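Homework help board

Subject: predicted structure for assignment chain

Our instructor gave us this sequence and asked us to write out the predicted structure in token form, then describe one feature. I got the tokens but I'm not sure how to describe them. Can anyone check?
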Amino acid sequence: MRLAKICFPFVSLLLFPTMVTGDSKIPEIPHSEVGFPLPYYSPVSGTFAEIRNHNLHLGSDFKSYGLNGHNILATFDGYVEEISYSKTGYGLSLNLYNPKYKIKSKYAHLHSFGGTLTELELLRRALLLMGDPTGFQLKLPPGMFTTKKGNAIGKTGETGSGPPHLHLEFRSEKGNINPLYFSEIHQKDVTPPTILSMFLEGDDLESPLLFSAKEIGKGKFELYTEMGDKFTSIQLTGKVRIRMSGYDKIRSRNKNNVYGMDLVVNGNSVFTRNFDFLSFEDKSQKHQFYDINRSSLSPPVYFYHMYEQPKLFKDEGYSIDLNQFPKKDKIQIQASLRDATGNKSFVSFEIIHEPSPKDFRIKQTSKKTGNKYRSVDGLVTIDLTKAEVSGDGSLLISEVLEKDIPFKIPKGLPLKGKIFKLDTKRMSWKGEGLGELNLGVTPSIKESLYFFDSSIGKFQGIQPKRKSNGFSFKLTKLGYLMVLGDETPPTVFPMTSIARYIELPEVRNHCMEEKYYGLSDVGSGFKTNVELLVDGQTYPYEYDPDRSAIRVLIPKSLQKERPYLLLEVKASDFAGNSSEPFVDLISTNGWKEDLLQASCPVIE
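My token output:
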């Protein structure tokens, strides 16, 4: 980020974060002194410690329903310690600090400052006008801008990354605190988390087992095998690793991260974790909490380690060491997920301490040389040499038949060759694995490499590149690899309920009418450059990656000349398929002339 090249006698530039120390992780501020950050009881749309691209999410996101300009409220008494702005990341943000309890709250993606702190908003405007308009980061003198809990100190917006929402963080001297830790902010939830599946890996198993979960009562789930049989017990010996997949819904349709988890063996707790606090060091250590090769941000799927994972990534933890139990002992297991209000969901099963039967064993399905793996037939190779590998196990590459895959290949995408399943045993990796699929011939433009992510149940991109004899690709997840043909064109559709930059009347741009058109493709993927015509003439647009849509701005002054506008959009994909033109007849009669400003452009 570039800093504003501007000086004020009362403002010092913050070039690096101030190092702080303290004894306690979470300050002992009374819950009654921490309030909600908005004037309405907004649902949470993103929760603490969720997976992001590089680090973990350090706060909670609150819905603003696409409207910029809601007041943000001071969560406690304090003063504004720092303000910053960038075109990416946090966007416009504000840090509020309470010196008594040494706690700060950070508000991000704001539209502006203000409320009871009108001079702070004037300072923001001055910095952008007189300094560098692309960004600033300023530390303010203590007590310059003071406020009380519940006072308005800014407006919600959509600066930085993502659609409109409020991002709120709490920080102590040791790290970040989950906003849902505070009783006035957690969502008074009555719905327990949803358990999706359980992943079982053992020294005695040649290949890991994945069981799906079905709810049979509030918070009570049963497990089922891939064949649909109910799972209640298994014979195992050695060390066992248990991972749970699930999410929590908090007053909205968003699938959020859970607050905590527990593992109970024979009635005794052997593992518990709360996502109530993350140290500054832990925020980049996703592997401590999640199976990163099976977890996903979009759509949200979290595979939680039900054990302590060592901070050193090369090591691998475990849930239970069965060697500590007598032979033939029956061991009762309960694994559960919790939300911030204490609602719990659980699954139960039994382990019989005996070697697993032969029907759980499978033949070796890949060959290993160092951290390079290849399928038995040699067609698929994956090189993890440049990735950071954990554990002493292997990456498993096995050929499967189309009738045996747990998903359906979409219509219009015919299969071109073999399907390979990628799985792991006692290992995971951070970073990108470099892979190759050898077809023996040059693939046509209609053929592309596809990857079905088994953890989230959908096809995902793996950055394939055509080669003279097949494809190269990059791999970070586990699932199914295959070549499909693409005979299906992309689609264009209107997004009438979505808009950006919807602001308060005094700052709203009345000059332009905004239109959004979504793009989608079931095959090789749509191109973000489209053919757009308005009344037969090429017309400019911008692509919005947050919504996978194009944004078209039309001057409202056109209503003086034209009662209707004919807009046409034609999209194409990377396989050479083109969509039929999407036609939108736009009436300008609703664009009121008295709202047009003198500065609005006039187009004849």
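Reply (TA_rk): Your tokens look well-formed. For the description, you could write something like this. The first strand starts at residue 12 and ends at 13. That's the kind of observation they're looking for.
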